[in-house]
Amino acid sequence: MKAARDAGIRIVIEGDAILLDADAAPPAAVLNLLVRHKAGVVELLRTGSDGWSGEDWRALFDERAGIAEFDGGLPRGSAEASAFACCVAEWLNRNPVRSPPGRCLGCGAGHLAHDKLLPFGTEQTGHAWLHSRCWPAWLASRKVEAVAALSSVGICMRTLP
């Protein structure tokens, strides 16, 4: 994608097709890269159910890492870890889980005398109903979903600080 942008190529996807627009004939090497990595390019540019494309997620990651590194003074690895955590939180916010009241999304049980069902989420997106003891495992599984979704668009933790 960077090579295409650097060559002045604008890319749009239409279904599974890639449409290219450029002011001048693009270099053959860049076109060969686009052909070879077509599936990845389509995946990166396709808008997900959360309304963001892989490029949107990459822009958020790069922005947050840059802010943490240059404004916050963090080493690059720590800045990327911080940016990744921001992306996970944003993915969770953009991909809420809803459940009907009366059943725990974690264990499937109803209200318990010693552990009442609690709503997690916001009024606008709806709630996930969970027992307090079920919440940590549920949140951990949601974070695994976020990491997998981000990884599918090329954002992953390479190094931990």
From TrEMBL:
Q: What is the lineage of its organism?
A: Bacteria, Pseudomonadati, Pseudomonadota, Alphaproteobacteria, Hyphomicrobiales
Q: Which domain of life is it from?
A: Bacteria
| Protein name in the entry | Uncharacterized protein
